[in-house]
Design goal:
Helices cover 11% and strands 43% of the residues. The strands form two sheets. It has an eight-stranded antiparallel beta barrel. The chain is built from four helices and 16 strands. The protein folds into two domains: 103 residues, no CATH class; 186 residues, Quinohemoprotein amine dehydrogenase alpha subunit, domain 2 (Lipocalin, Beta Barrel). It is mainly beta. The longest helix has 18 residues.
């Protein structure tokens, strides 16, 4: 098996310490096109298949399996299988045995990035994106969001939201994803009412792998998100702040997780006109459910000063799009 030592330059210092869930699917190393890694995770059990080549260029595949250590680390023996049936041939039992390659060690860095180490060689892996486009285009669709406000509310500890990323566009030179808070889970388009009262804008920082989103929570408050995104999920924290002010990023926000609940194709082709569903008054946002005194006494932020400065600058640009 060809081994390439990939030098990693990932800067993880600004990554807050929330948990994430590695994604199952097809992974690859961009420097090794033509080979791939199928990683399936069920509960805390991982099964991996490596589609690679031998020294003569013949296709080879290896497997590994076992339990994750914690949330994001795996170590297991590498097996090889041979003498199995060809495609459409009569089935015969193959032979599988442990190779002399030692252990496969997979360290997941985010939902969709990881390092694979074999015999001291390190390969950078990422979830392969077949169709979704760039980091903003892949957000298009409907996302259901869960907030953990247990430390900031005297009411129920968890709340939910539905966000629609409808399109990508350029505004004042900034490449953005735009959309709204959905009026209903049965209507997967941004209505005029939603766009006028609960619109959103998002920008992606490729250098730091972070998505910043601002949502008009209600007439008086914005919600700003700092997110790490996967293919069908995101993790991060959210900050509630009054319109005309800025979020206090020196204090921690509340944890947020999002899951794709409808594809961009469904959002694009969903039935029904883009018009109001008949609401006559604005609804209260998430801020009305939070205790302001608890927000002000939140623990110190896990975002370093550089990340805070980037986020504040991006928030101001996104607010301009929302107020256009």
């Amino acid at each position: 098996m060809k081994k390439i030592l990939t030098t990693l330059s990932l800067i993880m210092m600004s990554l807050p310490s929330w948990s994430f869930t590695p994604e199952s699917g097809l992974w690859w190393n961009a420097d090794e096109p033509g080979s791939g890694y199928n990683i399936e995770i069920q509960d805390n059990f991982l099964f991996g298949v490596f589609y690679v080549y031998d020294d003569n260029g013949n296709p080879f595949w290896y497997t590994t399996s076992g339990f994750l250590d914690g949330n994001s680390y795996f170590e297991g023996d590498i097996y090889i299988s041979e003498n199995g049936p060809c495609l459409l041939c009569n089935w015969v039992q193959n032979n599988s045995f442990v190779t002399n390659l030692g252990k496969a060690r997979i360290d997941f860095l985010t939902e969709t990035t990881a390092t694979l180490e074999i015999q001291g060689a390190s390969i950078f892996l990422e979830r392969f994106n077949f169709f979704l486009g760039d980091e903003l285009q892949k957000m298009r669709g409907e996302w259901q969001v869960v907030y953990d406000v247990s430390e900031y509310s005297n009411n129920f500890p968890f709340f939910a939201d539905v966000l629609l990323f409808e399109r990508t566009e350029t505004f004042n030179g900034d490449y953005l994803a735009t959309g709204c808070r959905s009026e209903s889970t049965t209507y997967n388009r941004c209505t005029n009412y939603a766009l006028n009262n609960n619109d959103l804008a998002a920008a992606y920082d490729d250098a730091n792998d972070e998505l910043i989103v601002v949502v008009r929570d209600d007439a008086d408050y914005y919600l700003a998100y700092y997110l790490k995104t996967g293919t069908n999920q995101f993790d991060g924290e959210a900050f509630s702040y009054r319109v005309g002010s800025s979020p206090n990023l020196n204090l921690a926000g509340f944890s947020v997780r999002g899951f794709r609940s409808a594809s961009k194709t469904f959002v694009d082709t969903g039935a029904g006109p883009s018009k109001s569903l008949g609401k006559t008054k604005a609804t209260s946002g998430l801020n009305s459910l939070l205790d302001e005194s608890l927000l002000k006494s939140a623990p110190a932020s896990s975002l370093n000063k550089a990340a805070q400065s980037r986020m504040l600058a991006t928030i101001k640009r996104l607010e301009q799009q929302l107020s256009k």
